[in-house]
């Protein structure tokens, strides 16, 4: 059914007069009359009764008017949805995540994005960096949040935030009552680390700046397991600020301070350089407007 012909029908039904409807549509009356007759032939029913009072809808006409208004409503919605999709305000955004940032920065960013873009569905993909890079190239995710920097030339990397580092330990540990822990105090204490190369590299760098090599007693599967281990051992572990959202019984967090510069760890996002998705552009607006808690 021709939408233009339906438009003519609605105008006649609302005006109840061919002349006024023709004027409203900027048509002469004979072509409008022909269009109404053609529509009646198409639906196989009389839509109007021509009376001295004007054009009166038949039962079939009343039914078609209700449906026509619903159709035009759907057309308007479709146009609006297409417009919002083109601006990154509608659709599905697949996000890759991994590591301790899932406990702090990333949920904050995604929550802000959802508040600003309530019609965008967010789906999460949890995997380590090599799998995330593959997912990006296959189009299964649009953006990844990670601490480990990929070196791939087809990927664009942006720093999201720099997080202060804290030391996690048992409530009974000798350092647990300190308000701050200088990096130098880690020299004589056993440390647990997770599997993240970037976290271990940060720890090694900070200790090297103080002139010693850390005593890494054990390596766990991730920072969460390393933190849990401290609850029932003498080990310490160095964690980013995001981990403070994870509270284990018997574990205390104390800020780590460096003698030179700041004891921090960076979080990055990366995505394909050739990705033109408006959803990605919208997410990057949120990422670039994010600031970490002080």
Descriptive notes:
The protein has three domains: 3-86, Arc Repressor Mutant, subunit A; 91-160 and 269-288, Periplasmic binding protein-like II (D-Maltodextrin-Binding Protein, domain 2, 3-Layer(aba) Sandwich), CATH 3.40.190; 162-265, D-Maltodextrin-Binding Protein, domain 2, CATH 3.40.190.10. The chain is built from nine helices and twelve strands. The chain has helices at residues 3-15, 18-25, 29-43, 59-86, 105-116, 129-137, 197-209, 223-230, 278-288, and strands spanning 48-51, 54-57, 91-97, 120-126, 143-146, 155-170, 181-182, 190-193, 215-219, 237-240, 251-257, 264-272. The strands form three sheets. Strands 3, 4, 5, 6, 7, 10, 11 and 12 form an eight-stranded mixed β-sheet that branches. Helix 7 (197-209) links the parallel strand 8 and strand 9 (215-219). It is rod-shaped. It starts with a helix and ends in a 6-residue tail after the last helix. The relative contact order is 0.14. The mean pLDDT is 90.
């Amino acid at each position: 059914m021709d939408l233009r012909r339906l438009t003519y029908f609605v105008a006649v039904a609302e005006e109840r007069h061919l002349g006024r409807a023709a004027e409203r549509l900027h048509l002469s009356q004979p072509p409008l009359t022909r269009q109404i007759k053609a529509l009646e032939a198409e639906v196989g029913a009389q839509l109007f009764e021509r009376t001295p009072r004007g054009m009166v809808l038949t039962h079939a006409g009343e039914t078609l008017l209700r449906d026509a208004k619903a159709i035009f409503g759907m057309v308007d919605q479709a146009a609006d949805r297409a417009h919002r999709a083109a601006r990154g305000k509608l659709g599905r955004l697949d996000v890759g995540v991994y590591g301790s940032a899932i406990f702090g920065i990333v949920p904050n960013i995604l929550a802000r994005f959802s508040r600003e873009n309530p019609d965008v569905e967010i789906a999460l993909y949890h995997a380590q960096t090599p799998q995330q890079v593959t997912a990006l190239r296959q189009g299964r995710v649009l953006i990844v949040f990670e601490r480990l920097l990929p070196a791939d030339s087809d990927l664009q990397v942006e720093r999201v935030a720099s997080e202060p580092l804290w030391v996690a330990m048992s409530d009974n540990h000798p350092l647990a009552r300190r308000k701050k822990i200088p990096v130098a105090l880690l020299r004589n204490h056993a440390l647990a680390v997770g599997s993240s190369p970037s976290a271990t590299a940060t720890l090694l760098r900070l200790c090297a700046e103080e002139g010693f090599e850390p005593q890494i007693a054990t390596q766990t599967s991730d920072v969460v397991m390393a933190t849990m281990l401290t609850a029932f051992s003498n080990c310490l572990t160095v964690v980013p600020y995001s981990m403070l959202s994870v509270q284990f019984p018997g574990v205390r967090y104390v800020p780590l301070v460096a003698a030179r510069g700041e004891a921090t760890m960076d979080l990055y996002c990366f995505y394909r350089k050739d990705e033109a998705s408006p959803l990605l552009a919208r997410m990057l607006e949120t990422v670039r407007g994010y600031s970490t808690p002080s």
